[in-house]
Write a structure and sequence with these properties.
346 residues; alpha/beta; Rossmann fold; Dihydrodipicolinate Reductase, domain 2; 14 strands; binds NADP nicotinamide-adenine-dinucleotide phosphate
Length: 346
């Protein structure tokens, strides 16, 4: 039986090379084409020696494939995938270019006019926990960002059950690889090591995505979100901590309230292969190199607030492995194929 041919546009970045690592070992597909501006003509295994068994040459342009992944920067990604979409190829985009439903949000948050608003209507957000059924038949899947994946998974059960009021705060910590492989002063070792800083306090690009998805979860819920990301000196990992006022009277007082909250989260994620509802605050180290997201929710009884924490690997559930989870769903093969491995610990 011939395998589904898959390709990666821009294998030379962190998200792209993680896709290559996972797809090269995926039993259900064959990675037949990879592109990379800075490495065209080189062997993938020479450019990335940890993939030295890969017998693929990095090309300037993508060969013919059945499913194309794009790991391009935003704006460039839309330009690269539009011709593929027009010729009927199925596309899984890791960039932000098809995540927002409102084309008018792109100039404000990303600084460009969207070149193909018609595809925003057809795109399905690649968060299987919310959109599994639509992903099955989608031609274009827009994988959510790493911060939004963590924030939405931490808050979705509480929003859906009407437990919280809209004044939500998401304080999120990210490892340096979240900023990509391209060189910048911010990610320079001597700037980032032994340092922690908050950034984008006036509004990070992932804020509209988190707001859009939490609003869609419950009619009438209009989230007013303060989202503050922090850069911390580790390679991988995202840890969002979300705070929101609880709606009075929804949960019992004291310990029973915590137990009921846990049950609501367990019910919401009951059939989810990659979300683990934790009984204590998770660590990013639980998730290194895996597609798992750990979610923990509790109550601050003094203030009547929900505290919800999640932990994930930004390059995995936040990018490459989540994209492959989406591919598995699109192909109708078991969703966990090629993704069963637990995280690397310590
Ligand atoms: N890093 C994460 O944790 C993460 C998580 C979720 C989503 N994403 C998204 O995934 C995409 C890739 O992110 P990344 O972190 O992998 O970035 P990256 O490591 O910085 O790589 C970006 C890639 O894009 C290429 N590139 C840069 N500028 C380009 C341009 N103007 N035209 C064409 N190619 C260009 C680079 O290729 P050359 O060097 O070969 O030119 C490189 O392969 C982005 O859209 C990002 O927002 C990243």
């Amino acid at each position: 039986m011939t395998k589904t041919r898959v390709g990666i546009i821009n294998v030379t970045g962190y998200a792209g090379v993680e896709l290559a690592r996972l797809l090269l070992n995926h039993p259900g597909v064959e990675l037949t084409s990879v592109t990379g501006r800075s490495a065209a003509g080189q062997l993938l295994g020479d450019f990335f020696p940890h993939l030295s068994d890969a017998d693929l040459t990095i090309e300037a342009n993508l060969g013919e494939v059945d499913i194309a992944f794009s790991a391009m920067p935003h704006k460039e990604s839309a330009q690269a995938v539009l011709p593929l979409l027009e010729n009927g190829t199925r596309v899984i985009d890791i960039s932000a270019d098809f995540r927002l439903r409102d084309a008018g949000a792109y100039p404000q948050w990303y600084g460009f006019e969207h070149p193909a608003p018609q595809w925003l209507k057809k795109a399905v957000l690649g968060l299987p926990e919310l959109y599994r059924e639509k992903i099955r038949s989608a031609q274009l899947v827009a994988c959510p960002g790493c911060y939004p994946t963590g924030a939405i998974l931490a808050l979705a059960p509480a929003v859906k059950s009407g437990l919280i009021r809209p004044e939500v705060i998401v304080d999120s910590k990210s490892g340096i690889s979240g900023a990509g492989r391209s060189l910048s002063l911010t990610t320079h070792f001597s700037e980032a090591n032994e340092d922690v800083t908050a950034y984008s306090l006036s509004g990070h690009r992932h804020l509209p995505e988190i707001t859009q998805e939490l609003a869609l979860l419950k009619p009438g819920f209009s989230p007013a979100i303060t989202f503050v990301p922090h850069l911390i000196p580790m390679t991988r990992g995202i840890l969002p901590t979300a705070y929101a006022p609880l709606v009075a009277g929804k949960l019992p007082e004291g310990k029973r309230g915590e137990e009921e909250l846990l049950n609501i989260y367990r019910d919401f994620y009951r059939d989810e292969p990659f979300v683990r509802v934790a009984t204590s605050s998770p660590h990013t180290k639980y998730t290194w190199g895996s597609n798992y997201c750990y979610v923990y929710a509790t109550i601050d009884h003094r203030t009547g607030r929900l505290i919800a924490v999640s932990a994930l690997d930004n390059l995995m559930k936040g990018a490459a492995s989540q994209a492959i989870q989406n591919m598995n769903i699109m192909l109708g093969i078991p969703e966990t194929t090629g993704l069963e491995a637990a995280g690397i610990y310590p």
